[in-house]
Structures are given as structure tokens and as C-alpha cells.
Design goal:
The chain has 192 residues and is an alpha/beta fold. 57% of the residues lie in helices and 12% in strands. It is built from nine helices and five strands, in the order βαβααααβαβααβα. Helix 3 crosses helix 5. The longest helix is centred in the last third of the chain and has 23 residues.
């Protein structure tokens, strides 16, 4: 079982992913833990830009560099993540996992979102920011995530058709969202 979680900033997707992994007793990978695994390999120099991402803020940049989806920029990190996921059941947060593992029959992809006002309040409370600063941070983070995803996949990051399950985290608690993901994954993988 491989569960990938894409998420909007402030949606609690990271914590939900951690909870899913904990409840299932499987490995949890985020940017830092995948980077640590990459550093153990002899391919780290080829993987460095994938883990030390720079915000990619425009589609024009992606088009101008013409280096997404299948070029060396994407091929080596994609293979690395596929190999990592093939070793053991895991939850992967971010890193375009939904796209990279889309053809794996043991994969379930999830996108977690929430209304902007809910995310702003969460970010403001958790990071001690004014709501205005929280909104600005939220916009920057989501723009960077969208740019990263587009750069490596040539697809929109936040479209429902790129995921098996989309969850509005303002409707469910983290616990309920984790349980929903687990239940959905078990049902989907039973039919494969």
C-alpha cells in the first residue's frame, strides 16, 4: 500500500498523512526524510534540485526551461521515488507523488484542501502571524507547490482528476480524515 498526499498549505494535510502512517504502522516520507534517503544514494547530486527546490513561480518559467516530465530533471527523482515506494508500504507527502506513482496498482492518491478563510486562521494561529501575513504566506507556499508540481509533471497540482480522493479538511477532524483515507485505500486496493 502506497498512499500519496498532495495538500494545500494550511489544510493540515501533513499531519493527516503522519496520522495515516501511524495508524497503519507504515513508513512516512516527507521532503526531509526522502532527502535523507537520497543522500544515502550515489545519485544525490542528480536528485539535489528535486529536494532543495526553489520556488517556481510561473508557467512561463516552466515553458522556457522545457525541463519537466521525462527530462533528466524528472526522470531520476521519479525513479528514486518509485524505488523507495517499492521497498515497503508507505505514505508520501508532496513531491508530486500522485503523478510519479499513478501507474502503480498499489497506489492511492489523496489531495487535502480547505477553504481559504479556514487555512488563514489555522496558519495565523499555528505560526503566530496576523491574518494578513498568514494569507500572504499561504499564497506564496501554494504558488511554490503548484510551480514545483507543474515543473516536474506538466499538469495542474490542484485538479481533482489527478487524485483518487479529495478531502476538505474543514469538514473532518484530522482523525476522521485519516480514517477516511485508510478506509478508502483499503476499498480501492481490494478491487485492484
Amino acid at each position: 500500500m502506497i498512499i500519496t498526499i498532495g495538500r494545500e498549505y494550511g489544510s493540515n494535510g501533513y499531519r493527516i498523512g503522519e496520522l495515516v502512517a501511524k495508524k497503519l504502522g507504515i513508513r512516512f516520507y516527507d521532503k526531509k526524510s526522502m532527502e535523507a534517503e537520497a543522500k544515502k544514494s550515489d545519485q544525490y547530486e542528480d536528485l539535489r534540485s528535486f529536494y532543495e527546490e526553489q520556488p517556481i513561480n510561473s508557467l512561463l518559467y516552466v515553458i522556457a526551461t522545457n525541463s519537466y516530465n521525462g527530462g533528466k530533471q524528472g526522470k531520476i527523482p521519479f525513479e528514486f521515488i518509485r524505488t523507495l515506494a517499492s521497498k515497503e508500504p508507505c505514505v508520501i507527502v508532496g513531491r508530486a507523488g500522485n503523478y510519479i506513482l499513478r501507474e502503480n496498482p498499489e497506489h492511492v492518491s489523496v489531495f487535502i484542501h480547505a477553504p481559504e478563510d479556514v487555512k488563514v486562521k489555522r496558519v495565523a494561529a499555528e505560526e503566530g502571524l496576523s491574518e494578513r501575513k498568514a494569507l500572504h504566506k499561504l499564497e506564496l507556499e501554494d504558488k511554490a507547490r503548484e510551480g514545483f508540481h507543474t515543473y516536474y509533471t506538466d499538469e495542474r497540482w490542484d485538479l481533482a482528476k489527478g487524485y483518487d480522493l479529495c478531502i476538505d479538511s474543514s469538514v473532518l477532524s484530522e482523525e476522521e480524515a485519516a480514517d477516511l483515507i485508510i478506509d478508502f485505500a483499503k476499498k480501492k486496493l481490494k478491487t485492484v
